[in-house]
Write a structure and sequence with these properties.
By secondary structure, the protein is mainly α. Helix content is 57%, strand content 4%. A hairpin with a 4-residue loop joins strand 1 and strand 2.
């Protein structure tokens, strides 16, 4: 970016806070590597979105959101697996329930925010609502969910005096977030949307407007923006897996914008993430389709039970953990019939018992979950 200046440090007495420049200004993209990656990212994102039109994407969307939730929370140190994300709270070990709560809140925040896009633009109001859901329970419930902070926060270090980075003072937040609102929704600047959301994510993380949950909220905004602009029809692209696997580069590139005015490196990293994640998204959907076809062949051997098996599997694509009691209710048959169906699917390697208990057993759709762990 030509003549880019990220902002200035302002003395607050015993420490200096960082005041980022506004996004509302003239932007000139003069880096050919960025432009080349932008073109590639647009192509791959278009392929992913087009692919989603040819499969019943609503069947698999909750797994995509759960993948994003576990990876985004993992960046913050939370350890919850894909399987655990779909368990009930009582099935989670007590010492892991706070982590589980954060992941489940993220899933709820994404689902509700996508619904809100039908009536709200991508805006501060939407961001606050998503944050309120994200922190409504668990470790963050006493840290002003849905409200901008009213005190100074910092990143790294034990106190303000030894902090790695100190965001702008709380009195600047409303103005800086209004700037993001205007920039996100302006149609007169001709800035490509993928560049815009890369800038918005950087700016949001720099402002750090909330007491807690800024990282998770900032990553959630990427998908919400792409859906709000119609670039994605459904929320099926999630960068948190890429960010988690390149965690140090993620933080270093964000920091380098502020310390070296090096925006190009951040944009190249972000767009590379779009390309890689979109590629993986297509690969995963292809793998799901192959798995679905293979399972159909296996189910054909079930005879009359095949109808019940298909009903159960349609539910498992949305939520890959189920109990015998839930199965009986789902197929509207006796508990014994449900057990027999589960036993058949277990023999075929489609379901796997995950509790090791004699009673209150739970079964996981393991081949399906594995696709999200591997891709």
């Amino acid at each position: 970016m030509k003549n880019f200046k990220s902002g200035v440090y302002i003395s607050q007495g015993s420490y200096k806070s960082f005041q980022p420049d506004k996004l509302r200004k003239e932007w000139v993209i003069d880096n050919m590597q960025v432009l080349s990656l932008l073109s590639k990212a647009d192509r791959y994102l278009g392929r992913l979105d087009m692919y989603s039109e040819y499969v019943d994407i609503d069947l698999f969307i909750q797994m995509h959101i759960a993948k994003e939730a576990t990876q985004s929370s993992k960046i913050e140190g939370t350890q919850t697996s894909m399987e655990e994300a779909f368990l009930n709270k009582n099935d989670i070990q007590i010492e892991k329930r706070d982590d589980w709560e954060e992941v489940r809140n993220y899933i709820s925040a994404m689902n509700e925010a996508v619904k809100m896009l039908h009536t709200l633009p991508f805006s501060t109001r939407l961001i606050k609502q998503a944050h309120k859901i994200l922190l409504h329970s668990g470790r963050g419930e006493h840290k002003q969910p849905g409200e901008f902070r009213t005190s100074q926060n910092w990143i790294g270090g034990a106190t303000l005096t030894d902090a790695v980075f100190i965001p702008p003072t709380h009195t600047e937040i409303a103005d800086l977030m209004s700037d993001i609102d205007f920039f996100a929704n302006s149609q007169d600047d001709n800035i490509p949307d993928l560049i815009k959301i890369a800038l918005i994510h950087y700016q949001f993380e720099t402002i750090h407007p909330f007491l807690d949950g800024n990282g998770r909220t900032g990553r959630l905004l990427i998908t919400l923006y792409l859906v709000s602009k119609g670039i994605l029809k459904r929320p099926i692209l999630y960068l948190s897996d890429f960010f988690e696997r390149h965690r140090m580069l993620y933080y270093d590139n964000l920091t380098r914008v502020r310390t070296h005015n090096d925006l190009s490196q951040w944009l190249k990293f972000f767009l590379t993430g779009i390309v890689e994640t979109a590629q993986k998204g297509v690969d995963r959907l292809n793998a799901i389709m192959r798995l679905k076809q293979d399972i159909e062949i296996q189910i054909d051997k079930f005879g009359k039970r095949g109808t019940d098996a298909r009903i159960l599997l349609d539910a498992l694509y949305k939520n890959p953990i189920i109990s015998p009691a839930e199965t009986a209710t789902l197929i509207n048959k006796t508990p014994q019939t449900a057990y027999n169906l589960i036993a058949n699917l277990e023999r075929e390697g489609i379901l796997k018992e995950i509790t090791g208990a004699q009673r209150c057993k739970l079964y996981a759709f393991e081949p399906y979950i594995n696709l999200f762990d591997k891709l």
